[in-house]
Write a structure and sequence with these properties.
Strand content: 35-45%
Radius of gyration: 19 Å
Number of helices: 2
Largest sheet: 5 strands, antiparallel
Helix content: under 10%
Mean pLDDT: 93
Shape: elongated
Low-confidence stretches: none
CATH architecture of the largest domain: Roll
Number of domains: 2
């Protein structure tokens, strides 16, 4: 039976909770997650916890923020004039957007709109949080040469990019 190592294709179910036990996200409603192990397709703490596991394994692992989505970086929070968002209908707090910067395309969330100013936060929504993952490993297989070359899993019909 295959165990998870670099270049394994892994199929799993997961539920991630915060330190209070509140469920933040789960694959159990939307179907399993497939990923190529050892190619930075998961947060480091979860990928490390999966090494050596096999299909049928279930486990719970606590992952500190530094091994999850990192610490919050307040330099990634900016306040700009609302005119910068004039092209966006119904701009609202909680809206997720993308913008072009000197570093390329950056995803961010609108966190406040006050007095003609919009505050945006480019931190990952789970940055700074310690997380608990409940994982069920569904299947493990060797990746194809093409999947390894591309750095990600290809679906049943091949790749679509």
């Amino acid at each position: 039976m295959s165990t998870i190592e670099k270049d394994s294709v892994v199929e799993l179910h997961y539920t991630v909770k915060d330190h209070d036990g509140e469920t933040l996200e789960s694959s159990r409603e939307n179907g399993t997650l497939h990923y190529l192990h050892g190619h930075n397709n998961l947060i480091p703490g979860l990928e490390n916890a999966l090494v050596g596991r096999k299909a049928g394994d279930t486990f719970i692992v606590d992952i500190v923020a530094d091994e999850a989505y990192g610490q919050r970086d307040e330099t990634m929070v900016h306040t700009v004039d609302i005119e910068s968002f004039a092209h966006i209908e119904d701009l609202s707090v909680g809206m997720r957007l993308q913008g072009q910067t000197d570093q390329g395309v950056v995803a961010f969330m609108v966190t406040d709109i006050t007095d003609g100013k919009v505050t945006v936060d480019a931190n990952h929504p789970l940055a700074g949080m310690d997380l608990k993952f409940d994982v069920d490993v569904v299947s493990v297989r060797d990746a194809s040469a093409e999947e390894i070359e591309h750095g990600h899993v290809h679906g049943p019909g091949g790749h679509h990019h």
